[in-house]
Amino acid sequence: MRSIDDMFLEMNKIAGEEGYRFNPDREELANLLEGLWVNEHRYGYPLCPCRLGYGELAQDMDIICPCNYRDADIAEFGSCLCTLYVDEEWGDTKVHEPVPERRPGEYFIKGYPAIIEQKGAGGKDMAEVYRCQVCGYLCAREEAPDLCPICRAKKERFEKFGMK
Length: 164
What we know:
Layout: H1 4-18, E1 21-22, H2 26-43, H3 57-60, H4 70-77, E2 85-86, H5 107-110, H6 112-118, E3 128-132, E4 138-141, E5 158-160
């Protein structure tokens, strides 16, 4: 498995390609990266360090870093829930509004596969579900992500996925 330093270099490159940056507080960043690294070794995938996972890939798909909620969190609050990813202005402010949990409450009862049939990542009616043709990763978003968080396949490798 990769080291924390290798993980950071890889994630930093991807964050830059996607137009994001990491938390500028080195101590917080180190703690978050350690949490991701521990989760990757525990579960086999980089589960968000600020959320509890099931430990089953099918149940945790929406909270694999970068999670399905990151983009909306950063657009509205300047950072994702765990503050790993932040916008340019985030570091200039000393007081930050807390980021609410966007993961649908029903998820905790029914699980992710049942929720994506009904709702999108923010709990609203979902426009589409996209599937990575390389690894099978599913995400409920307005459009496919630029890169798959699992295998790093580009946006072009995603297809619309019809729920049955």
